[in-house]
Amino acid sequence: MDEPKPERSEDVQRVLDTYNNLKEKVVDRELEKLESRLEDRIKEVKIDINDRITRLETRLQWSMGIAVAIAAIIIPLIVKFLSS
Q1: How distant, in Å, are the alpha carbons of 31, 33, 39 from that of 36?
Q2: Predicted confidence (pLDDT) per residue in 31-70, tens digit
Q3: Domain region containing 14
Q4: Would you call 6 helix, strand, or coil by DSSP?
């Protein structure tokens, strides 16, 4: 039932080994390309996140400044109104 497999000739084995080596090199090269693109994309995202954080911090500083200015105007008016 189970017939023994014929032995491969050295030439066939050499061709298979060469094929497997080339396949590994191609896969490695493609992985390196993907890693490089991912690293570039990660750098872009980090820069974008830092820019957004900076803009949010600036908005927060402006908002706090406006809130303090409004409070500096409103509180004395309320105190003056209540004391009269």
Answers
A1: 9, 5, 5
A2: 999 999 999 999 999 999 999 999 999 999 999 999 999 9
A3: 1-83
A4: coil
Token pair listed for 46: 């980090």
Q: How many CB atoms lie within 10 A of CB 48?
A: 10
* Measured distance CA(58)–CA(62) in Å, rounded: 6
Q: What is the number of structural domains in the chain? A: 1
**Residue 10 confidence class, pLDDT cut points 50, 70, 90:** confident
Q: Distance of CA 56 to CAs 32, 49, 59, Å?
A: 36, 10, 5
In terms of phi and psi (left: phi > 0; alpha: psi -120 to 50; beta: otherwise), the region of 16 is alpha
